[in-house]
User: Which sequence fits this backbone?
């Protein structure tokens, strides 16, 4: 089938390649001239036969909102817009209503797989009406990983793809997925730090690698940590500063709104905030309190660290 794809960055570009390998026709648009097939959104829509499916793969927030607004002026009744970025699920209802007034369908798709999705496939969590999802299903089938089989050779349903519910359900599922991802990465990172802190363990990368087979904590994330340690055994080339792209915050806020206890994911989010502080004000206060009530020693700030420019 034909697909218009807006945003040909690391994920969007790889998705286009995977779809073309599966025999689909992809018309791509990107702000970088060297990546795109057409020079404008108008040209992209004009290159597609009705009913059209246009997949938006641009940064979440205003870039996605503006792209959807423009598509609403260009597409026709019966066409479908797919938002495959990391948009907040509350944006989906707004987009669906705006497009729905013009007879244009809307599907939100949470996509996981990163730069490895080209070869391994992407896990897809989608929201929307059954009719709109059906129009995009050939694309979903090409992007998802191959369906695994059980010991008898029967296909195992559900792996790599789910129609999670109505509009918004896909991005909501991806939000929770990313919250869990935060916690898993934090746990692996803390385990690594303890192993590296003791003299008893002499081969920390080897220990991490040993966990990838036969253990209950094996995972793709663990495989990626092994890969990182192979490239940089002491992680000396990497700063300990960790960004968050929004989904962890939204997950914790949803947990608060629905009174769902989520201490592990919340702690992993706050740990990322701590990573951005060269000298944590919280720990300054903790050190000061320990000195006040127990006379515990504190580490003085070096003179050059408190100097101010004239």
Assistant:
């Amino acid at each position: 089938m034909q697909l218009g794809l807006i945003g040909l960055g690391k994920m969007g570009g790889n998705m286009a390649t995977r779809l073309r390998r599966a025999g689909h026709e992809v018309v791509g648009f990107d702000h970088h001239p060297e990546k795109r097939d057409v020079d404008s959104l108008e040209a992209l829509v004009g290159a597609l036969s009705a009913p059209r499916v246009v997949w938006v793969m641009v940064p979440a927030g205003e870039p996605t909102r503006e792209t959807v607004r423009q598509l609403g002026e260009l597409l026709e009744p019966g066409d479908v817009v797919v938002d495959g970025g990391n948009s907040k699920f509350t944006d989906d209802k707004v987009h669906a209503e705006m497009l729905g007034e013009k007879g244009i369908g809307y599907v939100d798709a949470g996509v996981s797989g990163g730069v490895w999705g080209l070869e391994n496939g992407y896990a897809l969590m989608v929201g929307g009406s059954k009719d709109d999802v059906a129009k995009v299903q050939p694309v979903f089938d090409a992007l998802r990983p191959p369906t695994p089989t059980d010991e008898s050779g029967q296909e195992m349903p559900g792996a790599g793809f789910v129609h999670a519910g109505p509009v918004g359900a896909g991005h909501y599922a991806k939000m929770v997925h990313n919250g869990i991802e935060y916690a898993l990465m934090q746990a692996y990172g803390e385990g690594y730090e303890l192993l590296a802190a003791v003299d008893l363990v002499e081969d920390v990368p080897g220990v991490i690698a040993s966990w990838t087979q036969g253990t209950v904590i094996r995972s793709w994330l663990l495989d990626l940590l092994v890969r990182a340690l192979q490239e940089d055994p002491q992680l000396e080339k990497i700063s300990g500063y960790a960004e968050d792209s929004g989904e962890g915050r939204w997950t914790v806020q949803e947990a608060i709104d629905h009174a769902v206890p989520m201490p592990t994911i919340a702690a992993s989010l706050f740990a990322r905030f701590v990573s951005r502080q060269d000298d944590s004000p919280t720990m300054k206060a903790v050190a000061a309190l320990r000195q006040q009530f127990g006379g515990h020693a504190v580490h003085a700030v070096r003179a050059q660290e408190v100097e101010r420019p004239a």
About this structure: The chain has two domains: 2-167, 175-274.
